[in-house]
Amino acid sequence: MSNVVFQVNIKGHRVKDEFEYSTKSWSNWCKLNDFEHFVLTEPIHDLNYMNANWHKFFVLEMLDNENISYENVCIVDADTIVHPDCPNFFKETDHKYCGVMNDGCYEWVTRSIRDFNKELFTGSIPPHPSTYINGGFQIVNKKHKKFFSNMKEFYSGNTEKIQYAIDKIKAGTDQTIVNYMLKINEVDVKILPACYNLQDLFRKNLL
Fold it and tell me: How far is residue 147's CA from residue 139's CA, in Å, rounded to a whole number?
């Protein structure tokens, strides 16, 4: 049973030439480590109904439908680039839901947490910025099928409210909602080291 790296890179939806570097880097890393690389290039739902980022929550269902066996699935955004010598982070999951703390623009994060609370999660205890994970790198397994079902049900039951909130807040599409839902559903989340999803390189003078 293998591990899988999954990306959403739907044709015609904000696809940029530089995304090619992302998919090639992950394809190469998977080959070096004997993992499966699965890229979704066609939408499951009309993009006017569901943003491409939300398609990631169909990954476990898609892998089952394709009869692809897996132990863990790493969901990465199409603007991530992995170093070919990156260690095997699947060994560090403890079979939990894993992510990396969003160590970027804290104004963006705190505003997103505050305003999504007003629009969608009134009365919920908001996630703390220190445990708020970036949506561009998440590791899941079969235990999280129920959580992904809950995410899809939440979207289908609140589509207009979610689309309105995304357009109004302009601070993410699925990322803050995932963080709220992880907390609400009491999912055991493990925070992995920043090296696996290093963000805002320009602000850190790393370029």
Answer: 13
CA–CA dist 97, 181 (Å, integer)? 13
76-104 tens-digit pLDDT? 999 999 999 999 999 999 999 999 999 99
The 3-state secondary structure of 13-77, one letter per residue:
CCCCCCHHHHHHHHHHHHHHHCCEEEEECCCCCCCCCCCHHHHHHHHHHHHHHCCCCCCCEEEEC
What contacts 23, CB < 8 A, 6 or more positions away?
A: 7, 9, 39, 78
Query: Could you tell me how many residues make up the chain?
Result: 207
Which is nearest to 98 in space by CA: 129, 70, 79, 74? Answer: 74
> How far apart (Å, rounded) are the C-alpha atoms in residues 8 and 128?
27
How many CB atoms within 10 Å of residue 97? 20
Burial-class residue 106 by CB neighbours within 10 Å (0-12, 13-18, 19+): exposed
Listed residue (171, 163, 137, 132) closest to 51, CA to CA: 163
- Per DSSP, the three-state class of 102 is coil
